[in-house]
Specification:
The complex is a heterotrimer. By secondary structure, chain A is mainly alpha-helical. Chain A has a single domain, classed as ABC transporter involved in vitamin B12 uptake, BtuC. Helix content of chain A is 75%, strand content 3%. Chain A has 16 helices and four strands. Chain A has helices spanning 2-21, 24-31, 33-49, 53-72, 75-79, 89-105, 109-137, 142-164, 196-199, 212-230, 232-242, 244-249, 254-280, 292-302, 312-337, 340-384; strands at residues 187-189, 203-205, 208-210, 282-284. In chain A, a hairpin with a 2-residue loop joins strand 2 (203-205) and strand 3. In chain B, 27% of the residues lie in helices and 36% in strands. Chain C has a domain at 44-278. By secondary structure, chain C is mainly alpha-helical. Classes of the chains: A mainly alpha, B alpha+beta, C mainly alpha. The interface between A and B is large, with 40 and 35 residues.
């Protein structure tokens, strides 16, 4: 009975998709509103800002190396239909704990990064598991729940880092520890790790530094994601993302698949955070992670992704456009209004506005599809009768 | 059949964990960093002493000059791992000819900071004579406690989160 | 016989715990422990209690603003910053237009009303378009509007020397003192002071009045229709209720209460905070009402009162008591974990009623 139900639902889905193909050009334009808007903003701001092309390219390459890995962490939960994973902050926190230890143990350079990543894995997995379980209990509200989870775990992170490190968890060096004997300082210097990955194999072309090793690491992750989509687990995830009930009828353990997707995202975000912080060269213990999720999500959406669909291409387009805007907006804003703060606020506003618009588009589309499907179902039932 | 798969999975997982632990252990050895301080100072050890350090010593690590030491100076650099290598260009007296010395030595794993007395090293003293652990000056008694900005939501980060 | 008796007793405890919720029980127990411990560790109980009451008055209406939207099924109003912005516009315009003293408070309410109505209507229209995804979008509508207003506070042509930056003479300051305006306008009214113990009668009365109005409204025909829309929209539609209109009304009410709420908060706090300050003001209000026993689609005035007392009690009590007991000020961390944990707990409950 339930199987039959599932097949009719599948048929309806297909017919729905066929119907959609008719006005694909319009859809294409509509679904790319955000990138087009951004291209226009950048096109206006770049000449006003007065930056040289070499400077811009250099900046974008740096920021691309810094952020792309983090943004790629968002792709897998989207594939599993769990929306934008605001809980990627959890992975960032795990990475920060790893980096604090590595910094205290005085492990330098790339070995330090690798060690921090390895330390972050079990922490990320544990946090990802918790996050996945909670999101399974909050089906249909995954995004707002994952968003609150990031605040909740931030509280626990503070409990550990501010009170337990140095008192229960041994921390030796006073450069890391607060003078009062427990807790970690506001900033932990990662000077011995700073841009060690970026400088490895780096090529300098007319003053533009290309961090080749970082791009290779990012490329490997892209290959992994492409490969992963084709595995059994990847296929399952896409099935779950399409329709949970159909997937369940097909014998997929929906809950487990969803947990795995969040878990993977958290671990990747942890790695990404290590790469991000090695580029920055210091760790703001209590704030580095807090805005990571927001900026990564905004960048992905700027690249033309939506809540239920995102590709590697979206990531690269997004990171370029978003960071181009981030670089030029303050200076352009200052030149137009004479106040440098305007540009600062403008780019923050644009980041939030982009996420808002993408969320609204997603929800309206979902509603439209729902009503379309209901219509089709009704029509089919009428035909049957 | 299913049992076989889970067994393989288990093996695979154990293997992955073992591999990660192995890499982590390796990183501990390879990545252990030290701060090396160079002294171009007077030294005495075991009855022998050097009273006139060279006029000037240039220290090169990885083909990069990290210190330019006149007599009585101290320089420093960071080094990863325990096999420390450096090249010194020694000028005995002002206007004198440069002498080049390549030095490789083992750094004890558990020392964060190491002080090398270069004249002693060049004079061929035993290890205890030229290598001492760097003990950071005891923290000032009135070390003021740092104000912690926990910043629950990262509002501070909003403006400069993406800055260098 | 005896076995069944104990079983029913245990069942009753279990069902009580079930209905009250474990996290809520922990929080209430924690606050109780704080109050018991306070005198032993040398904290001044009357001061603590008056602080709690004071903070209750500041925040009560912001929490009350959650009620209409929860009732109409729009979920928790994470978009409260929109209402707060209306309130801030009212506050700054009232000062700009030269109102002073307690009068400026009422002027601020009057001026903020049209903003709240317009913004609330737009917000309500939007939420009607995206039924089912309200909470996430509400959050980001709040964020976008706050960051948009950050630019506006700099650009709008304000001139009052008490509000703009002294040097450039334009752009509003981040915090504006309310001294000479409506500082303590309500709290100072009929204040009762016995030693260290003080009761801000005016503010309490104002809250009671607003809460009563809300209670009365929920018992009018429109109010019951709102509850019906929230608990079973298809039934409500069948009964001839215009669901969208009712939802819109609830959003406007929430927004307006948010505007009034921030003004009440400011009169107690003594300062207007602009720019990034309203960003996360929704979260304490949301967790307060949830701690008080509300769920994503059910909230009563009693939930508001209990929740605000519990939440503000913890906020005021933990720093002093914790500091005295273990010499570590862990209050911030405890507050974060308790309040965010409470929101998470509520989000993971299966929504009762016919909300699809």
């Amino acid at each position: 009975m339930s199987n039959e139900n599932a097949t009719t639902k599948g048929n309806v889905l297909q017919t729905g998709q066929q119907k959609k193909k008719g006005n694909s050009l319009l859809n294409l334009l509509a679904s790319n509103t955000v990138p087009i808007m951004f291209i226009i903003i950048c096109a206006v701001c770049i000449p006003i800002s007065g930056f040289s092309p070499a400077y811009l390219i250099n900046e974008i390459l740096t920021r691309m190396g810094r952020n792309t890995f983090l943004i790629l962490a968002l792709l897998i939960p989207i594939m599993a239909g769990m929306g934008l994973n605001f809980g990627m902050t959890l992975g960032a926190m795990a990475a920060e704990i790893g980096l604090i230890f590595v910094s205290d143990w005085q492990i330098y350079g790339i070995p330090g990064m690798v060690l921090a990543m390895i330390i972050s894995i079990p922490i990320s997995m544990l946090l990802g598991l918790i996050c996945g379980k909670i999101l399974n209990a909050a089906k249909g509200r995954e995004m707002v729940a994952s968003y609150i989870i990031s605040f909740f775990i931030n509280g626990i992170y503070q409990l550990i880092v501010l009170y337990m490190m140095g008192s229960i968890i041994p921390i030796k060096h006073t450069t890391v520890k607060l003078p009062r004997g427990y807790g970690i300082r506001n900033t932990v210097s990662l000077l011995n790790m700073r841009q060690k990955l970026d400088d490895l194999l780096a090529i300098n072309v007319k003053g533009v530094k290309i961090p080749v090793a970082t791009f290779i690491v990012i490329g490997l992750l892209c290959l992994f994601i492409v490969w992963f989509r084709k595995t059994k687990l990847g296929q399952d995830m896409r099935a779950v993302g399409q329709d949970m009930e159909v997937a369940r009828d097909a014998g997929i353990d929906v809950e487990r698949t969803r947990i795995i997707s969040i878990l993977m995202s958290t671990v990747i975000a942890g790695f990404g955070m290590v790469i991000y912080l090695q580029n920055m060269g210091n760790l703001s213990t209590y704030s580095s992670h807090s805005q990571i999720g927001m900026f990564a999500i905004a960048a992905l959406l700027v690249g033309g992704a939506s809540v239920d669909k995102a590709s590697i291409g979206n990531v690269f387009l997004g990171v370029t456009l978003f960071h181009l805007m981030f670089i030029v907006a303050p200076s352009a804003g200052a030149k137009i209004t004479g106040d440098s703060m305007i540009g600062e606020y403008f780019r923050v506003f644009v980041s939030y506005a982009v996420i808002t618009i993408a969320l609204i588009m997603y929800e309206t589309k979902k509603r439209r599809e729902k009503s379309q499907m209901a219509e089709l179902l009704a029509a089919e039932q009428e035909a049957d009768a | 059949m299913k049992n076989k798969i889970t067994k393989r999975m288990l093996l695979f997982r154990c293997g992955t964990i073992a591999l990660l632990l192995l890499i982590a252990g390796l990183m501990f050895i390879v990545g252990r960093g030290h701060t090396v301080y160079f002294d171009n100072k007077k030294v005495s050890y075991d009855g022998k002493s050097i009273d006139t350090p060279p006029y000037r010593i240039d220290v090169y690590v990885n083909d990069e000059r990290v210190a330019k030491l006149s007599a009585g100076d101290r320089g420093m650099c960071s080094w990863m791992g325990q096999d420390f290598r450096m090249r010194m260009e020694i000028t005995k007296e002002k206007g004198g000819k440069k002498q080049i010395a390549n030095v490789a030595l083992k750094i004890p794993y558990n020392m964060d900071g190491i002080v090398l007395n270069l004249p002693a090293l060049l004079a061929g003293f035993p290890q205890d004579g030229y290598l001492t652990e760097f003990v950071p000056a005891p923290a000032e008694v009135t070390a003021e406690d740092e104000e912690i900005v926990t910043d629950e939501f990262g509002l501070e980060g909003l403006d400069d989160g993406m800055e260098e | 016989m005896e076995e069944t008796k104990t079983k029913t007793f245990r069942d009753r405890i279990a069902s009580f715990v079930e209905s009250f919720g474990v996290p809520r029980l922990i929080i209430a127990g924690f606050l109780l422990a704080l109050f018991i411990a306070a005198p032993f560790v040398g904290a001044d109980l009357p001061t603590q209690i008056s602080n709690t009451i004071n903070r209750f008055c500041w925040n009560g209406i912001l929490v009350l603003a959650m009620v209409p939207m929860v009732h109409s099924g729009c979920g928790l109003n994470f978009g409260l910053p929109l209402g707060i912005i209306s309130g801030l516009l009212g506050a700054t315009l009232s000062i700009e237009l030269g109102f002073t003293g307690a009068l400026s408070f009422f002027a601020a309410i009057v001026i903020s009303t049209p903003f709240a109505l317009i913004l609330g209507a737009g917000y309500g229209w939007l939420l009607n378009k995206i039924k089912g995804g309200e909470m996430m979008i509400a959050t980001y509508v709040g964020f976008s509007s706050v960051s948009f207003m950050c630019m506006m506070w700099l650009l709008l042509p304000y001139h009052s020397p008490n509000m703009v930056w002294g040097l450039s003479g334009k752009g509003l300051r981040t915090t504006i003192s309310l001294e000479g305006y409506y500082n303590q306008a309500l709290s100072g009214f009929l204040r009762i002071q016995i030693g260290n113990f003080s009761i801000p009668t005016g503010a309490l009365l104002f809250f009671a009045f607003m809460a009563f109005c809300m209670w009365a409204f929920l018992h009018t025909k429109t109010g019951t229709a709102m509850t019906a829309v929230g608990s079973n929209p298809s039934f409500a539609r069948a009964a001839g209720i215009n669901v969208n209109k009712i939802r819109m009304l609830s959003v406007i009410m929430s927004t307006w209460l948010g505007a009034v709420g921030i003004l009440v908060y400011e009169q107690g706090f003594g300062f207007i905070q602009l720019y990034m300050a309203p960003f996360y003001m929704a979260l304490p209000a949301v967790s307060a009402i949830l701690i008080g026993g509300a769920s994503v689609n059910k909230a009563t005035i009693m939930n508001v009162i209990i929740g605000t007392i519990l939440f503000q009690g913890i906020v005021t009590m933990t720093p002093t008591v914790m500091n005295n007991v273990i010499h570590m000020d862990m209050s911030e961390v405890i507050r974060i974990i308790a309040s965010q944990g409470m929101i998470l707990y509520a989000l993971t409950r299966k929504s009762e009623g016919g909300k699809s």
